[in-house]
Every structure is written in C-alpha cells, then in structure tokens.
Amino acid sequence: MNWTVNLKKEDGKIKMNIGVLALQGGVIEHINHLKALGCETVEVKKPEELDNLQGIILPGGESTTMGRLLKQTGIFDKLKEKITDGFPVWGTCAGMILLAGNIENNVENYMQVMDITVRRNAYGSQIDSFLTYKKIDEICDEEIPLVFIRAPYITKVGSDVDVLCRVDENIVAVRQGNMLATSFHPELTDDFQFHKYFVDMCYNIFNEKVSW
What we know:
Elements (H helix, E strand, L loop, with lengths): L7 E3 L2 E3 L1 E5 L6 H9 L3 E5 L10 E4 L4 H10 L2 H10 L4 E4 L1 H6 E4 L10 E6 L10 E5 L9 E5 L4 E5 L4 E6 L2 E7 L2 E4 L10 H15 L5
Parallel strand pairs: 3-4, 3-5, 5-6, 6-14, 7-8
Antiparallel strand pairs: 1-2, 8-11, 9-10, 12-13, 13-14
C-alpha cells in the first residue's frame, strides 16, 4: 500500500479525515453525518483532494453522470489505483454501481474494483422507493432504518465478499476488504451506525500502517 498516511491527534485521539466524492449526488448528507461523528471532511472534486484522506464515500446520485465526471476531472485513475492499493471506500447506491466489477445489461462498467455483479434500478423507479428496518449483525445491535431510492441490488458476489445484509433475499450490503457497498442510503436517516462502522473501518485499516 502506497497511499499517504497523515493522521492527526487531538487530545490523544486520532482525528479522521474522510472525503466524499462531490461531483454529483447526495454529498452534504454524508458530510453532516461524518461531522457529527467528529471527523474532518473534504468534498472531493479534484484528484489532489484525494491526498491525505483516510477514506472516501461515493454517494448516491446518477451513476452514468458520476462515471463520466470522474474521468473528465481526472479523479478516476487515481481513485481506482488507491482503492486497489487498499484505500478505504464506501459506495452508497450509485456509488456501489461505480465500484462493481460487473453491471447487468450495461455496456459500460466503471472502476470494476469490487467482485460483485449489480442490477441497476432493481427496485424500480422513484415512486417505488421505500423504507424498511433491519438488524445487521456486523453493524448494530438493533434494527436500523434502510432507505431505498431507485436502488440497485447485488445479484452475484465473489468468494471473498462478505454479505452483510439481505432484504427479501436480495443482497443489499457487502464488504470486501477495504471496500464497503450498500444499496440503501444511511445518510438519509437520523441513524449514524453505518457511518460509524465505516469510520472505524478506516481507522483500523490505517492503524495497520501507523505506529505511534
């Protein structure tokens, strides 16, 4: 792993610096959740803004537009290389599509870093959006709200992908090493447990590299 380590300590605690890809989609909601957990945040719009981060969230939005803007801004190659090197990333909804190794019935794939196959708009159109509650053992001790908006789901996973959650037998949350992906939008709820899980994940990955 060769990405930059630049953790800060305040009052003896490590201060995490987490980015949110800010080219399109639901950025501010993720920013607000991260700030509520005490993280410093960066809205990533340029390749150099990927430096000195301890993780990044790829938000929901329009995956085709986000994929195009990733390449136009020059972020695409640098981000893919960092993720392949072990950089922590979490993709929500469209962000999950950007990470997927394969997208059903789609000519164009994107970063193809995660060993999953995704079905776009699997739950239908905007009017088919819904809210449900699930207890996810890896994340929480009680049921938490899961918001689905024109959501994809995962139809196939590789052998090293951990399935974290299913809804109606459909796979909607997975982790593969340094990569986390969800079909739903924790940032659109008042629950912080998924964001805390990701921040802890970033911390643990960086702790493997850093000795104080």
